[in-house]
């Protein structure tokens, strides 16, 4: 099947994390999948959604809650990782569309967790690293974080930083600017 190019599926995940090394027997795993559909023709963000995922091999630490606002109770009410991957495939046709994330962490974490749990990878082969694209488009000598990119573009950060659905929404805004600029809709001053 040909890759669909009318929308880009922007993904941002939150994972269990600790201030230092994980406690013995625990490993980082996805606890939230943020999704934002970006319409390529217009650059409009169409929808956003957050899927909470119940961890199997770790617990939400106090550090993780401070960073993400997600609590142990919230994520324990989430769905299994394999069910979340099915939602991506069935409701968003994730295997057949281009998908994007800010940096490469999200892609690698999905690959690791799918392999570890014996679950089919929910995405097709075309992944856009918005962090690198933004650095290249803006002529930066180094990559900046999502909040830095928004600031550079003079776009206010919407929602709560380090929450999947809000970050996916904000990343889609950065990607939209890059796409519109590539088509000549914006000039280099838009990245200043």
Task: Give a summary of the structure in a few sentences.
With 192 residues, the protein is of the alpha/beta class. The chain has helices at residues 62-68, 72-76, 81-92, 105-117, 130-138, 146-153, 164-182, and strands at residues 4-15, 30-39, 45-52, 97-101, 127-129.
Describe, in plain words, how this protein is organized in 3D.
- The protein has 192 residues and is of the alpha/beta class.
- Strands 3-2-1-4-5 form a 5-stranded mixed beta sheet, with helices on both faces.
- Strand 2 and strand 3 form a beta hairpin.
- Helix 5 packs parallel to helix 7.
- The N and C termini lie far apart (40 Å).
- The mean pLDDT is 94.
Radius of gyration: 17 Å
Question: What percentage of residues falls in helices of 4 or more residues?
Answer: 25-40%
Content of β-strand? 15-25%
Tally the helices.
7
The tally of beta strands, per DSSP, is 5
Structural class: alpha/beta
Shape: globular
Catalogue the unreliable spans. none
Order of strands, main sheet, comes to: 3-2-1-4-5
Largest sheet: 5 strands, mixed
Listing every helix as H and every strand as E from the N terminus to the C terminus, the arrangement reads: EEEHHHEHEHHH
Overall pLDDT level: 94
What is the distance, rounded to the nearest whole angstrom, between the alpha carbons of the first and last residues?
A: 40 Å
